[in-house]
């Protein structure tokens, strides 16, 4: 392993430990070694902001568990320790990070920003766990939503805590099908497994739900390599599209919507991730009533528990640029702590079997793991962008002055979809 990689990994780990330190009671921290969680994510490169957002979310969840005394085990409580490893957005780097994390003693890996990377990690972990039972690893996935990961390529060692792409498309379609003025849509996405699945499912559901809607554009672009989306915006304008459906995330979404705004596009955007990471500010007033986003939770879910949850996060991370909180990542860590306590050990197989039965609630949001395919089942919400202060928009996004009003709430029972997984268990 190159020495500069080792140096970067150690530097990242020291930074994570320094941030976690205030949440570790000294006596407990010294009584038993921590349970190491290895976050493998882009901490540099074009999607570094997404990796940092994930780290903040998971760190906050780990701090909460540690603040209440850690994970209770027969031999005594143990703290959680979050270490992060920079994949640089590359599969090979992610696999190198996986090996490094295992060498450091981590047996729980977390990743999500890229379904292609998730697929590579699943393959590597499957092979490792069969070859080396003493070093078996669990993979907890918070955002890699290609449906195949819990269908054809499902694994006993992999658990997904986000709704997969087909579930999210279905939620968006419940809003789109009600917009009878929409007659022409443009499909655009990142050219890898996830982006391809979003467009494929969108075509399928449009044909069934809105056969009157014409698809006037259908294309994929390189992921993380397009710096100027003006040519794509020009094609959207020339097509006469009244709406755009995209699964783009990170800078690929922000740059796309910014280019569309500058080109004069005044149609709707139906998105997976249009509610943060610079997108609302990039769109501005042009997005009011036009940018739709689906999520497991939004800050403007109007309950006292939800509001308190969001205010607590903003107290912990007050900078406007850090304002991106994911409920599912909090539920992931809660489910893991619950599973370890139920297993009564950190044995990988025992924890996995307990995690198959996870049922957790936080701030009024409940989710449970489906054992058949390890797909987490939880409610979904759809929001539309509006100016802060408008009815239902108490909170804005990243200090932009724009937030998302919840217009559709979908219970877990309705968000659930069948699976083709044939789980092979040890």
Automatic annotation (TrEMBL):
Q: Which domain of life is it from?
A: Bacteria
Domain (Leucine-binding protein): give its ranges: 34-389
UniProt xrefs under InterPro entries = BCAA_transport, Leu-bd, Peripla_BP_I, TAT_signal
Q: What CDD domains does the database record attribute to this sequence?
A: PBP1_SBP-like
Q: Which residues form the signal peptide?
A: 1-29
Alphabetical UniProt keywords:
Signal
Give the Gene3D superfamilies listed for this entry: 3.40.50.2300
Q: What PROSITE patterns does the entry give?
A: TAT
Q: Name one Pfam family in it.
A: Peripla_BP_6
Family, per entry: Belongs to the leucine-binding protein family.
Q: What is this protein called?
A: Branched-chain amino acid ABC transporter substrate-binding protein
């Amino acid at each position: 392993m190159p020495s500069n990689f080792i140096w970067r990994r150690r530097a990242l780990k020291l930074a994570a430990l320094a941030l976690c330190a205030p949440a570790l009671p000294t006596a407990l921290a010294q009584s038993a070694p921590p349970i190491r969680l290895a976050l493998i994510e882009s901490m540099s490169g074009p999607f570094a902001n997404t990796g940092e957002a994930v780290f903040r979310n998971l760190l906050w969840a780990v701090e909460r568990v540690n603040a209440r005394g850690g994970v209770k085990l027969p031999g005594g409580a143990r703290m959680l320790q979050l270490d992060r490893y920079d994949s640089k957005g590359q599969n090979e780097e992610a696999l190198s990070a996986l090996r490094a994390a295992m060498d450091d003693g981590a047996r729980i890996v977390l990743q999500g920003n890229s379904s292609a990377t998730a697929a590579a990690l699943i393959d590597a972990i499957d092979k490792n766990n069969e070859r080396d039972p003493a070093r078996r690893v669990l993979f907890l996935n918070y955002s890699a939503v290609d449906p195949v990961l819990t269908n054809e390529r499902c694994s006993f060692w992999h658990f997904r805590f986000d709704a997969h792409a087909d579930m999210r498309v279905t939620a968006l379609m419940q809003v789109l099908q009600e917009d009878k003025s929409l007659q022409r849509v443009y499909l655009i996405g990142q050219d890898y497994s996830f982006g391809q699945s979003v467009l494929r499912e969108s075509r399928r559901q449009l044909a069934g739900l809105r056969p009157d809607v014409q698809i006037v554009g259908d294309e994929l672009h390189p992921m993380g390599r397009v710096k100027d989306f003006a040519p794509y915006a020009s094609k959207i304008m020339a097509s006469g599209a009244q709406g755009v459906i995209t699964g783009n995330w990170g800078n690929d979404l922000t740059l796309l919507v910014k280019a569309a705004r500058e080109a004069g596009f005044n149609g709707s955007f139906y998105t997976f991730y249009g509610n943060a990471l610079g997108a609302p500010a990039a769109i501005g007033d042009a997005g009011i009533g036009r940018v739709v986003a689906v999520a497991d939770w939004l800050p403007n879910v109007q309950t006292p528990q939800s509001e308190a949850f969001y205010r607590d996060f903003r107290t912990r991370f007050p900078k406007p640029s850090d304002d991106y909180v994911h409920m599912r990542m909090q539920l992931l860590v809660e489910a893991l702590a619950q599973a370890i306590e139920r297993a009564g050990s950190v044995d990988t197989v025992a924890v996995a079997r307990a995690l198959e039965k996870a049922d957790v609630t936080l701030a009024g949001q409940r989710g449970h793991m489906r054992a058949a395919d390890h797909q987490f089942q939880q409610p979904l919400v759809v929001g539309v962008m509006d100016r802060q202060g408008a009815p239902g928009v108490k909170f804005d996004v990243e200090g932009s002055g724009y937030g998302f009003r919840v217009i559709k709430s979908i219970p877990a029972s309705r968000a659930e979809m069948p699976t083709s997984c044939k789980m092979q268990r040890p």
